[in-house]
Design a protein that fits this description.
Blueprint: H1 6-19, E1 27-30, E2 33-36, E3 40-47, E4 53-59, E5 77-78, E6 81-88, E7 91-98, E8 119-129, E9 132-143, H2 192-197, H3 231-234, E10 263-265, E11 290-292, E12 296-297, E13 303-304, E14 315-322, E15 337-338, E16 345-346, E17 349-354, E18 362-367, E19 376-389, E20 392-405, E21 409-423, E22 446-447, E23 459-462, E24 473-476, E25 483-491, H4 497-509, E26 516-518, E27 532-537, E28 556-576, E29 579-597, E30 609-621, H5 632-636, H6 665-684, H7 687-694
Parallel strand pairs: 2-9, 17-20, 19-21, 27-29, 28-30
Antiparallel strand pairs: 1-3, 3-7, 4-8, 5-6, 6-7, 8-9, 10-11, 12-13, 14-21, 15-16, 18-21, 19-20, 22-26, 23-24, 25-30, 26-27, 28-29
Length: 695
């Protein structure tokens, strides 16, 4: 069965829709036209539905033109179609359903849409009162043989194997679905004629379909070229099923639905060592053998709701969530966390506060009409403080700031989550950034020698909402992390260039209110001579042109400070137990000037313009760390290069070399000598030496 020509069919549809408009204006089908590709469709008849009769008819189109509908003799049973009408509130729900199956249709399994549809018909649903047509619904039916109606669901089940026990896919070069990929000879969608065009240039290796190749260490591959002479002594006897690509695309367990609680359960057996103390970076565990989780931001900028909290790693993140899909996080109240001692448990101490300014966290709000539904609370800020003692957790305190909203309110909510690890005997206001050297990611400690204000760090902007400087908050400058931030300064039409210049300077100076910066992470605030360096404030370029700086030339303000550059010099100052200690040697701030003009279009209305200001931080390590030149051995014997081969002979004794920093060098040497003594003792007590002693 072929489709009618498109132009006459479109003309017929337009003509019919013109005839099918509502007669009284108070009764209409929603929608008025449906393209049907499945076994059933539904629509709603709204308006005055009292004493209204709904019926179904099959229209016969001739040369693409549909006849003028009539409401004379219409029935609910029209051949293979049935009509069901269900009353609802001030409307009628109309359902048209196909009564038979598609067993008589022939289907092409390889190309489901290459043939014309199996059923092509036009149905008309009419609403009438006393044989007078009031509204019409036009249904265009196009059902293909290979649709889900043509066969049972159990006949088309795809079994997905467990990727843990599978190598790569059967054909990695098959990149296009439903089409033949050139030079991919394993593509099942390529016919024999197409494959013959590029059979001599097929992709080779794993990408071409050889997903289980012989790996280099296999003994059966000893005939490979460039095999070393010692290969037969150190090769591996392994079956071909044990491929090195086994589980290459396996990414771990997949959860069926997101967990709303403050912990996520593991789907695999976990080797939990938290009973013997935490180490830096270890995930914090609960008594239910699950990770203690708090929403965090990934490297891609997405908000992960079930991200584990690592021991001794602070973070401060913000997540934007829609109110209608946000979930309440009340699991923290009943959470029981392992403290690092066998059988030890610590329960968080939770305090609640109400937000003073809800509009700061919720934007683009929209409240739907509800029938007396009770309001609900959402958490906008969660602040966690972990007290640690050696490798254990002694106390957990949580402060939750929440907002009461309507149960059906919509909008964007910005949530903030902070985690801070503090020593059990330290205060909150003077936290170390390292001991003695700085740790990466810790705030840069600052001091104001004039004692004008209690400044403890340097800041950058953290914009929110429209990005205005008046609503921006501060975030600390973190050691070793280059950063760039900015905001928008509102400038009124009544301000002159001098006032704009003063406002910009005041705004940029608010970031650096200190006079000194700590060289080390544990410098004493009460002793300015204990490793504090003065901040060098470079003067702005001399741009004196002899003109009055308060007067603009042709509407242009010159020499406006727009950017603050902060350069921090750091270096390695030694090592403590094999861990490199870094310190700050100097810091410089410099302002960049720009020329700016008020943008007001044809007429300058009484509204503010926006002037962008920014600040950048750059860490420079001195002296410059040049790459180590390759040795003559690495140049001549590339097969022994650790960066090019899987076998690395120079690292055979890696634990006793200077490159290993997991333990102090003295302990590594002592353990190495102990192993050598055990080996010598075993050799001395072996059978050849025993016979010599007996003789």
């Amino acid at each position: 069965m072929g489709l009618p020509p498109p132009a006459p069919l479109l003309l017929g549809l337009l003509l019919l829709l013109g005839v099918l408009r509502p007669r009284w204006g108070d009764l209409v089908f929603i929608p008025a036209f449906i393209r049907m590709t499945g076994p059933a469709v539904s629509a709603s008849l709204v308006g005055g539905t009292e004493d209204v009769t709904v019926s179904l008819a099959l229209l016969q189109d001739k040369e693409g033109l549909l006849p003028t509908p009539a409401c004379g003799a219409l029935t609910n049973e029209t051949g293979d179609w049935s009509l069901t009408v269900t009353p609802s509130v001030s409307a009628l729900d109309v359902t048209v359903r196909l009564k038979r199956g598609l067993q008589g249709c022939s289907a092409n399994e390889t190309d489901p849409f290459s043939e014309p549809p199996c059923i092509v018909q036009t149905l008309l649903v009419s609403a009438s009162h006393n044989s007078s047509c009031l509204a019409h619904l036009l249904i265009r039916v196009e059902i293909y043989a290979n649709s889900s109606l043509a066969r049972n669901a159990s006949e088309n089940v795809t079994v997905i194997p467990n990727q843990v026990y599978q190598p790569l896919g059967p054909c990695p070069c098959n990149l296009t679905a439903g089409a033949c990929d050139v030079r991919c000879c394993c593509d099942q969608e390529c016919s024999s004629d197409l494959t013959g065009l590029f059979r001599e240039a097929c992709f080779t290796g794993v990408f071409g379909g050889d997903v289980n190749p012989l790996f280099d260490q296999l003994c059966s591959a000893q005939g490979a070229p460039e095999a070393p002479g010692w290969f037969p002594f150190l090769c591996v006897q392994s079956p071909l099923a044990n491929s090195p690509f086994l589980g290459y695309f396996y990414h771990g367990s997949v959860s069926s639905r997101p967990q709303a609680s403050a912990e996520v359960y593991l789907h695999t057996d976990l080797r939990d060592f938290s009973d013997f103390g935490y180490k830096q970076g270890d995930p914090i565990m609960t008594v239910d053998k699950a990770y203690f989780t708090i929403p965090q931001v990934s490297l891609a900028g997405q908000c992960l709701q079930n991200a584990p909290v690592a021991f001794l790693q602070n973070f401060d993140v913000q997540c934007a969530t829609r109110l209608e899909v946000s979930q309440e996080r009340d699991g923290i109240i009943n959470a029981k966390i392992k403290n690092g001692v066998l059988g030890g448990i610590v329960t968080p101490r939770v305090t609640y506060e109400e937000a003073t300014d809800p509009d700061k966290f919720i934007t683009r709000t929209e409240t739907l009409l509800s029938n007396g539904s009770a309001p609900r609370n959402v958490n906008v800020e969660e602040h966690y403080i972990f007290r640690w003692n050696n490798n254990t957790i002694s106390e957990i305190s949580v402060k939750i700031i929440r907002v009461a909203i309507n149960a059906h309110q919509k909008g964007i909510m910005t949530q903030r989550f902070t985690v801070k690890f503090l020593s059990y005997n330290s205060g909150d206001e003077k936290e170390f950034s390292g001991n003695p050297g700085y740790q990466l990611g810790k705030p840069v400690r600052a001091l104001n020698a004039n004692r004008v204000n209690n400044v403890t760090t340097l800041h950058l902007w953290q914009s929110a909402g429209r990005g205005l400087c008046t609503s921006a908050t501060f975030k600390p400058i973190l050691f070793g992390e280059n950063a760039l931030s900015g905001c928008l300064l509102e400038v009124g039409t009544s301000e002159n260039c001098t006032q704009l210049r003063e406002n910009a300077v005041e705004l940029l100076d608010s970031l650096i209110q200190a006079t000194h910066v700590a060289m080390r992470g544990n410098s004493n605030y009460n002793d300015p001579s204990d490793g504090w360096v003065e901040i060098i404030r470079a003067d702005a370029p001399d741009t004196d042109t002899g003109a009055d700086p308060s007067v603009s030339v042709n509407g242009v303000c010159t020499d406006i400070p727009a950017r603050l550059h902060v350069r921090i010099l750091s270096s390695d100052a030694g090592a403590v137990e094999g861990i490199t200690q870094q310190e700050i040697l100097g810091i410089e701030t410099r302002l960049s000037l720009v020329n700016w003009q008020f943008q007001c279009g044809l007429t300058c209305e009484d509204k503010a313009d926006l002037f962008p200001v920014s600040a950048s931080v750059q860490f420079i390590k001195i002296p410059a760390q040049l790459p180590r030149p390759p040795t003559r051995f690495q140049i001549n014997f590339t097969e022994y290069d650790c960066n090019r081969n899987e076998v690395c002979w120079p690292q055979l004794l890696y634990p006793v070399t200077r490159y290993y920093q997991g333990e102090p060098y003295s302990q590594c040497v002592a353990k190495g000598l102990l192993l050598v003594s055990f080996f010598m003792l075993a050799v001395f007590l072996s059978s050849p030496w025993a016979r010599t002693c007996q003789v």
